[in-house]
Amino acid sequence: MEEDDKECLKEAGEILKAGGLVAFPTETVYGLGGDALNPDSSRKIYAAKGRPSDNPLIVHICRFEDIYRIVADTEESRKMLANARKLSDAFWPGPLTMILPKSEEVPLETTGGLNTVAIRFPSHKTAQALIAYGGGYVAAPSANTSGRPSPSLARHVQEDLNGKIDMIIDGGEVEIGIESTIVDLTVEPPQILRPGYVTQEMLSRVLGTVDTDVTILSDKSGQAPKAPGMKYRHYAPKGQLTIVAGTKEKVAAYINEETDRLQAQGVKTGVIATEETKNLYHADVVKCAGSRTDELSVAKHLYGILRDFDEEGTEKMFSESFDYAGIGQAVMNRLLKAAGHHVDRKSTRLNSSHVSES
Ligand code: AMP
Ligand code: MG
């Protein structure tokens, strides 16, 4: 790390220790950091984001051992900690958040009133250095205004939080683009509360059976999501987004029919396409998310595209649907939320029992 960068990160660490807020890059999305053990810092985070105070924050650490100070030391938590160790060996540092029973050290302001705490050890070197300089425990939700897409660039943070926080560290474009996988280790079997880069299959290889919260891909389960934040309408662009599922040809034909009709009425239209299909569309704004052969590219660009639509003032947008394999499940989870679960299915060939049609 360059000397200048080190000095800047030291200064940022001092801001955190003094109770201030610093936005910083991680491998998933930009985070808005505050001292996780200081209830005033957590309150400031909620205020800056306009985040409901029952939506708990993830505590970021920079060494596995630091987990012991913030996790309850009880008979019950020992087995959970053994699972945490196994997952840490496999996936930390990285895009995985674990839920464990909290110790007295973690203020309820940080956990949204819960007796559990969400913990992550990110792999991004800037994030690790900031956490170390900032005292070792950094509460950091995504650095966006509540309800807007999470930031994958420092510019997105600036759009939402400029003037409301003490510092923004620009680390360029993030690597993954969607938030961490959250796994709850306080239940047996452990349960995924939010899908991300680390998939159910990857977790199962380490822990055996791992469940997924049923609310993740359907809004029709009649149940409340277990991660409080997942119940809010997130990632919403200002216009109406519809996901169109089906074969490539049928999807393109249908979207063109719709956008032609809307454009004739003077409505500004947008499409989320892929490298393979971007030349097929007539819409006013056609955005290429990435290649279907590289799902990570789609994850990385998704939120930026939703923000671009807002900037361009598109009123009706359509997105192709993506496979649920690998990180595709996380991509579809975010897209379905952005679309308010508004899906048009144009082919009986698509086997996707997860999507709710409207
Ligand atoms: P963000 O950091 O903005 O990506 O949001 C953090 C997510 O983690 C939200 O959906 C929270 O509801 C969830 N979360 C944080 N702490 C807990 C916890 N103790 N139990 C369940 N979910 C949590
Ligand atoms: Mg968020």
List the helices and strands and how they pair.
Blueprint: H1 3-17, E1 22-24, E2 31-35, H2 39-49, E3 58-60, H3 67-70, H4 75-91, E4 96-101, E5 116-120, H5 125-133, E6 138-139, H6 154-161, E7 167-168, E8 181-184, E9 191-194, H7 200-207, E10 211-212, E11 240-245, H8 248-264, E12 269-273, E13 285-288, H9 295-312, E14 316-320, H10 328-338, E15 343-345
Parallel strand pairs: 1-7, 3-5, 4-8, 9-10, 11-14, 11-15, 12-13, 12-14
Antiparallel strand pairs: 1-2, 2-6, 3-6, 4-5, 8-9
The structure holds adenosine monophosphate and magnesium ion.
Residues 141-142, 150 line the site of magnesium ion.
Q: Nutshell version of this structure?
A:
The protein is 33% helix and 16% strand.
Could you explain the architecture of this structure?
The chain is α/β, with parallel strands linked by helices and 358 residues long. The chain has 10 helices and 15 strands. It has helices spanning 3-17, 39-49, 67-70, 75-91, 125-133, 154-161, 200-207, 248-264, 295-312, 328-338; strands at 22-24, 31-35, 58-60, 96-101, 116-120, 138-139, 167-168, 181-184, 191-194, 211-212, 240-245, 269-273, 285-288, 316-320, 343-345. The strands form 2 sheets. It has a 10-stranded mixed sheet, sandwiched between helices. Strands 13-12-14-11-15 form a 5-stranded parallel sheet, with helices on both faces. Strand 8 and strand 9 form a beta hairpin. Helix 1 crosses helix 5. The longest helix is centred in the C-terminal third of the chain and has 18 residues, at 295-312. The relative contact order is 0.14. The structure holds adenosine monophosphate (AMP) and magnesium ion. Magnesium ion (MG) binds at residues 141-142, 150. Adenosine monophosphate (AMP) binds at residues 55-56, 58, 99, 111, 114, 116-118, 141-142, 179, 182, 193-194, 227-230.
